[in-house]
Amino acid sequence: MKTNIRLKKELSALAVTLFAACVSAFTLHIFVYPADFAPSGVDGIAAMLQKLTGLGAGYYTLIFNIPLLIASWFVLKKRYVVYTIIFTLVSSALIQVLAAVDFYVYVTQSDKLLPAVFSGILLGIRTGVMLRFGGSTGGIDVIACMIQKKKPYLNIEKSISVIACLIIGVSFFVYGNLECIMLSIIQTFVFEKATALIMRDTRNAVQFVVITDKPEQLRNEIIFNLKHGATVTQCKGMFTDENKYMITTVVNTRQVPEFMNILKKHPDNFVYYSDVTGVKGNFRRYRDDVAK
Fold first, then answer.
1. What are the start-end ranges of the H helices in the chain?
2. What is the pLDDT of residue 203?
3. Mean pLDDT of all residues in the chain?
4. Burial tier of 283 (Cβ tally within 10 Å: 0-12, 13-18, 19+)
5. If pLDDT is split at 50, 70 and 90, which confidence band does 292 have?
6. Residue 43: CA count within 13 A, CB half-sphere
7. How far is CA 74 from the centre of its chain?
8. CA triplet 19, 276, 208: central angle to 5 degrees?
9. Which of the 8 DSSP states describes residue 227?
10. Of the candidates 117, 101, 90, 106, which has an alpha carbon nearest to the alpha carbon of residue 25?
11. Using one digit for the tens of pLDDT, what is the confidence trace for 85-113?
12. CATH 3.30.70.120 domain locations along the chain
């Protein structure tokens, strides 16, 4: 039984990898290369080298990624590296095939904003789905994972941002105009937003923290009306030095108005709440949902 579940999981991961590789290749070929701007990361370096030398970007993607993937084999999890290798090989090969068959490209002389926006969305989806199941699109992602593996407390995001800015800055000397930099910035912004959206769990929720003297007053409301659990912790107020109780609970976004009405019945309580980007485990969206 466990073997079948694991096989299905790996087949799903393989299908997602192939899908992401196809999205990557078609997006780069149709939208990015004809618009003459460089996306961030290895894709941007490959695009610029293709512009300068005429050699296909797929070859440069392989040239840059192969050494990184060989090194990562000895540092990172084998599953991560295997799926990254599959993605890199398929996307690089498909880029060359699309160029060889002279596949359709989107060319506009008036407004290149659309290619930047749409390529950002599609490449963000590509990266997000790969990261969600534990793979990557290669390049800077692999470098970041290796550094994070060795130094887990290092803030690698700043270094990645610096590298991305350098690549965008160098593109000015390749394409020879300021427009390419502006398009790259727009594409990178949309790309990051799209990736974050895919990485965000679809089960959006809100966490409430209630400081109260009488937790039993809220117990029935939370458990039987909202159909959620809660954690109660004893605490002490720093200013008053009084013993209190802290109730922590997570409710779905549609229940926020209902919970706020409940809290209005107890105006002496102190409440703060914040968005939760994802929820796993026993959490129900609606009252009649079965616990799982």
1. 2-27, 33-35, 42-53, 57-73, 78-100, 113-132, 140-150, 156-175, 178-199, 216-220, 256-264
2. 62
3. 87
4. middle
5. very low
6. 31
7. 25
8. 160
9. -
10. 90
11. 999 999 999 999 999 999 999 988 777 89
12. 205-276
Four-residue CA torsion sign, 42, 46, 49, 55: positive
Place of tokens 């990178």: 188
The CA distances from residue 69 to 9, 19, 44, 206, 246, in Å, are: 23, 20, 18, 39, 48
Please provide the DSSP assignment of 75-122 as one string.
Answer: TS-HHHHHHHHHHHHHHHHHHHHHHHTT------SS--HHHHHHHHHH
At residue 291, the pLDDT reads 43
CA–CA gap between residue 199 and residue 196 (Å, rounded): 5
**Residue carrying the six token digits 């904003």:** 113
Q: Does the pLDDT at position 122 exceed 90?
A: yes
Cα 256 from Cα 259, distance rounded (Å): 5
pLDDT at 289 over 60: no
Please tell me the least confidently modeled range out of 20-34, 80-94, 158-172: 158-172
Question: Is the confidence at residue 288, as pLDDT, over 80?
Answer: no
**Is pLDDT at 7 greater than 90 in this prediction?**
no
In single-letter form, the type of residue at position 241 comes to: D
The CATH fold of domain 205-276? Alpha-Beta Plaits (3.30.70)
Could you tell me if 210 and 269 are in contact, meaning their C-beta atoms sit under 8 angstroms apart? yes
